Amino acid sequence: MRINGLIQATEQIHQNFIDVVISERRYQDFLSDHSQFEVLHKRLAEIVHRVENLCKKRRASPADLPNPSYRAYQWLNFLSQKKWLLSHLHALRDFYKITYEVLVKPGVSTDRRIEIRIAHFNYLFRCNQNQGLVKLEINEGFLSAPEQIKRKLVETALNSRKRKHNQSLREYTQTEDYRRISVSLQSGNQTNLRSYLGQNHDLLNLFNKLNKEYFHQQLDQPRIMWSARRSKRRLGYYDPQSDTITINRRFDSQDTPQILVEYILYHEMLHKSLGIREVNGRRYAHTNVFKKAEKRFKDYQRAEKLVKQSNQ
Q1: CA-based diameter of the chain, in Å?
Q2: Domain parsing of the chain, residue ranges
């Protein structure tokens, strides 16, 4: 299920935020009379309402949207709360101020343009510097970060030699402030009503079967869905940010043995169950514990053989 214009509307919201923040005069107006704030808040509420109504008409929920659209909806829904919208604008202003201080030396003019976005990403930050444009994307979890953490993030993003800061940034992701924002972003998580249904395989039924057989029915149901498009290489993946398991749509075929679909789904359920292990700043998903658990799957050897055949 798709909603035309949702990603474009989200892009426009990002641009609206930038337009408000980069002009000191306009930002002061915003702080004093809240006119800009009210306009932005109304626009956010309208988009969220439109998405929910369109989904309802199709007997679906926002959770049935493809991952990029669902994450956009989660972000817009999060910012439709006035306290988070206000915090977002203040944080965006802070990041612009810090970035200019790091990039531009006193008394030296620059023609480099700076574009900063704070959003609902899988990564902590991402920076691209090309042809006079510095584009910095920052995880929404850093919204309430202290000034020194924001500065470390900017310095690390702009200068790879400062990657030593990465550890302190990752440590910040374990704080209550960061977790509170992550939880708030996902507080609107909904159950998908149709995207787990394929023409040949029902992923929800298979999840319930595997949950009973391998997890003692203790694994909370994530959002489970078939991918919007067929991919040649990727079998499936688990996105912890939106708590979503996605299985490659090419396996929703009469020619695909059910055991292969079950094995791929089981693999992603293990990712949800075991999480990520971090050692010296590096993150590991396929640990020895994971691999041992994976071999518990019934007829493991046959399933692995089918996986290899599917990649040929």
Answers
A1: 69
A2: 6-186, 203-310
In terms of Cβ atoms closer than 10 Å to its own Cβ (0-12, 13-18, 19+), residue 251 is buried
Amino acid at 155: E
Please say if the pLDDT value at position 27 is more than 60: no
Residue at 46: amino acid letter: E
Where does 203-310 sit in CATH, by number?
A: 3.30.2010.10
For residues 144-164, b (16+ Cβ closer than 10 Å) or e, as one string? bbeeebbbbbbbbbeeeeeee
Strand partners, 282: 279
Report whether 204 contacts 196 (CB < 8 A). yes
Task: Indicate the pLDDT class of residue 33, thresholds 50, 70 and 90.
Answer: low
| Amino acid making up residue 159 | N
DSSP H or E segment with residue 274 = helix 258-274
Q: What is the DSSP letter of 239?
A: E
Residues 91-129, buried b or exposed e (16+ Cβ, 10 A)?
bbbbbbbbbeeeeeeeeeeeeeebbbbbbbbeebbebee
Q: What is the pLDDT of residue 230?
A: 86
What's the length of the chain?
312
Question: Facing residues of 117 across strands?
Answer: 137
Amino acid at 76: L
pLDDT for residue 177: 94
